[in-house]
Every structure is written in C-alpha cells, then in structure tokens.
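hey so i finally got around to running the thing on that chain from the lab meeting. sorry it took forever, my laptop kept dying and i had to restart like 3 times. anyway pasting the input first so we r on the same page abt which one it is
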Amino acid sequence: GLGGLGGLGGLGGGRCEEGGVRYSEGPGASGDVYIEAVPAQVWDLVTDIGLPARLSPELQRAEWVDGATGPALGARFTGYNRHPGLGEWRTVSHVVALQDQRTFAWVVVDPDGRFGEPSADASHPLATWRFDIEPEGAGTRLRQSARIGPARSGVSLAIDRMPEREAEIVSMRLDELRTNIDATLRGIKTLAEANR
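ok and heres what got predicted. didnt touch it at all, straight out
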C-alpha cells in the first residue's frame, strides 16, 4: 500500500485450505494511529518519501526521479532497500493515488529483475503501499497499508525454495510488514506531535 485500487479493503487476503494465505491472493497488512496534529501536518510527513528510511529498517533511502520533486499522480521514485535474507536491491515506485491531505498510494516494481523478469509495469506491482488520512476530533487518524504481489518479489524467491511452506513464508513477511508499518506510524506520530 497504494487509482484503481479501491481502498485496499479486506487487506487480509484469502485463505487457502491449509489455513494459510497464498502469495497469489495479494495478502496485506495494515495499521493505524491517532495523531494529535492536524491533517496538513501529517500529510507533509507521509508525502516525504525519505521519511520511511529514517523510521523503518528495510528502506535505506528514496529519491524522486524523472524530474519529479514531490508527490504527483504518475510521479516516480526510486527506493534502495536492504533485508537480512535478501541483501540489497533497487525498486521504482509509481504514485497511483493522490488526494491532498487524504490519500497517498504507490505501487512498487522491479526494474532490474532482482526477483524475476525485469518490469517497470505499474499494473503488475510486486507491492502496493498506501497512506490514508482522516480528520478525527482535534487530530488525525493515519492508516498505512501494504499488499504484496502479484509480481514476483523476495517472498517469491523463498517460496521457490520451499513451496510446501508458502503459507508460513507469506505469514512471516506479513509480520515483517506489520512491524515496519508500526514503526513508521509511531515515528510519524512522534514527529507530527513534536511539531504542533
């Protein structure tokens, strides 16, 4: 998370008969936090593509490309990532939903073929990310969501090695995403409330 994506409602994904979620079903994770700051302050933080690199362990840095200097529908940014099990890789993200002080969403593609065939096709992402902002009382409710697939990703590489453990692998990745989302939301809350 992340238009054409609706609200990514029902992010939990479907269940396979063994009781686990399959990668092909586009499972996801999400979290939300109440922030004692106005939506405009929260918006400035969520649309800062460099901020998650300071708050979450996987993204190392991000930068706008193709002359973009900030969020705009269709704008692209490059992310540089690191994961203990996968090493380092580059992604390109396409902004696919943007509504001022409400929604910022992007899809992630694998232009270098790190996980399969190289692809810059935003209609077939390896992940979709989304922030949604709602005014709540004197403050703001911030929700972040992520959905994995359908294009190949690091999860696909692990499933290739251990196909019988697909549900467990997907579940572990969703747990990682929840941890990263929680860290990002906590960080944004701290920064927004400190800057009131």
